[in-house]
C-alpha cells in the first residue's frame, strides 16, 4: 500500500517508520513520499537521507484551509497514495482532504484519547496529575483527535517524572505503536464499524 507521511517538525515518528521500512518490517506498506507544510521540517531531511521522495506545500500560500487541503489531496492522489500517516503534522485537516482518503488517514497522539486531545498533551497529563497516560493511533475525522481509536499503549506517570521525561517515555512507545498500526492497516487487518475498530489476527504490539 503506497503510503505518504506528513510532518511539520523533527520527524522522529517518521524515522521509526523509515527504520521498519528499510528492514522490511513495515510491509505491505511502502513509504512512497514524505510531505511537509514548512520547508524547515527536519522530517524532509530524514526522508531524503532514506531516498524517499519529498515535497513541501506551504499552507500560508493558500487563501483558506480548504484550499490548502484540496491542493494537498491532489498532490497525494497524483502520486497514487493509498494511506496517509500524520506524524507531527500540525494542521487540522478538513473534509476537503479527508474525503479523498476515507478511513485512510492515521494520526499518532501522545495521550490516551479521548483524554487530553489537542496540543501539549503530555503537559496536560502531567499537570492534571494522572497516574497513567500513553499514546494513541486513530483514524482522523474532522474533529481534533476525535476519530476512531485503532491502538493505544499505556505509560505510567512516575513520581520522579517531569514533563520532559514523561514526553520521552511516551515517545518511545509511539515509535513502537505507529509502525504496528501502519502495517496492520496496510495488510487489511483493520476494519471500522461506526466508531468501533476491529483488528484481525491478534494484538498490534
Q: Can you tell me about this structure?
A:
With 205 residues, the chain is of the alpha/beta class. The protein folds into 2 domains: 1-102, Rossmann fold; 107-205, Formyl transferase, N-terminal domain (Rossmann fold, 3-Layer(aba) Sandwich). Helix content is 34%, strand content 24%. The chain contains 6 helices and 9 strands; from the N terminus they run βαβαβαβαβαββαββ. It has helices at residues 12-23, 42-49, 65-78, 95-98, 121-128, 163-186; strands spanning 2-7, 30-36, 54-56, 83-86, 105-109, 132-139, 149-156, 190-193, 196-199. A 7-stranded mixed β-sheet has the order 3-2-1-4-5-6-7. The two termini are 20 Å apart. The mean pLDDT is 95.
What labels would you give this structure?
205 residues, alpha/beta, Rossmann fold, 7-stranded mixed β-sheet
- The CATH homologous superfamily of the largest domain corresponds to Formyl transferase, N-terminal domain
Q: What is the total tally of β strands? A: 9
Are there runs of 5+ residues with pLDDT below 50, and where? none
Bin the helical content: 25-40%
Structural class: alpha/beta
CATH architecture descriptor name of the largest domain: 3-Layer(aba) Sandwich
By DSSP (H or I, 4+ residues per run), the number of helices equals 6
**What is the total domain count?**
2
The string of secondary-structure elements, in order, is: EHEHEHEHEHEEHEE
